[in-house]
Amino acid sequence: MSDDGGLWLLAAGPVGATALYWALYRYYRNTDKSHAFERETAIEAQPVTGSDDKVGENNGTQATSISGNNVGAYRMRVERVRDDAG
User: Fold this and answer.
1) Are 26 and 32 in contact (CB under 8 A)?
2) Whole-angstrom distance between the N-terminal and C-terminal Cα of the chain?
3) Residue 15's closest CA among 23, 5, 3, 27?
4) Percent of the chain with pLDDT over 90
5) H helices of the chain, where?
6) What is the distance, to the nearest Å, from the Cα of residue 50 to the centroid of all Cα atoms in its chain?
7) Highest mean pLDDT: which of 37-46, 51-60, 69-78?
8) Closest among 86, 85, 68 to 77, alpha carbons compared
9) What pLDDT is stored for residue 86 in this prediction?
10) What angle do CA 28, 15, 5 make, to 5 degrees?
11) Least buried of 59, 65, 71, 86, by fewest C-beta within 10 Å?
């Protein structure tokens, strides 16, 4: 095998990888088919409508625990599975 014949084979790897990367990038990004939303879409600004009415308060986030918890009573939480067959 001559030195000139193998050189193209070594160059084909990086060139092929670059071409594949470019083709996949163009396929998935659709950069040539998408439009620039900010430049090509006209949106008319309108004043804000509606109201903010207070409906209640949630002060439960100040408590360190939930009332009625049974964390310490593990026998009350866990129930044994009984085998009725025998």
Assistant:
1) yes
2) 82
3) 23
4) 10
5) 3-29, 37-40, 74-77
6) 32
7) 37-46
8) 68
9) 53
10) 155
11) 86
For 5, 20, 25, 42, the CA distances from 13, given in Å and listed in that order, are 15, 11, 18, 47
pLDDT digits (tens, 9 = 90+) for 72-84: 776 776 677 777 7
47 CA to centre of own chain:
33
What's the farthest any 2 CA atoms get from each other in the chain?
86
**Residue 70 contacts by C-beta under 8 Å, 6 or more apart in sequence?**
76, 77
Return the amino acid letter for 53. D
Among the ranges given (6-10, 50-54, 55-59, 67-71), the one the predictor scored with the smallest mean pLDDT: 55-59
Which two three-digit tokens encode residue 75? 């026998």
As a residue count, the chain comes to 86
| Banded model confidence at residue 60, pLDDT cuts 50, 70, 90 | low
b/e burial code for range 30-67 (CB count within 10 A of at least 16 → b) = eeeeeeeeeeeeeeeeeeeeeeeeeeeeeeeeeeeeee
